[in-house]
Amino acid sequence: MVSDRSVFVRLTLASNISRLSKVAHNFLSQSCDQNYDEELALLHEAFQLIVSQLLTDSNNCVRRTLLLTPNSCANLCVFFGRQKTNDVILSHIITFLNDKVSQKVDQFFD
Fold this sequence. Notes:
By secondary structure, the protein is an all-alpha fold. Helix content is 84%, strand content 0%. The longest helix is centred in the last third of the chain and has 38 residues, at 72-109.
């Protein structure tokens, strides 16, 4: 779904990915007695790939939806934990903000 041609599909995924991560984590917590850490690492890997692709989507609305949907970013930060949040989300937020500043400066001088 993350590479679907339809922007609507990617927008829907972006607006629901934090809820999906929460449900997946709850399911793992309730069902996995053995190998929990390994399964959690795999779950983080899968969601990291999806979130990274959404945060670098060619459509600005997809990126904004992921970051600005109420509690979405906060829930993803809780899901990933401190280190992965720094690696996955924070670096993209900084890039996203720098792009916004660059666009405004460019518009000012045009």
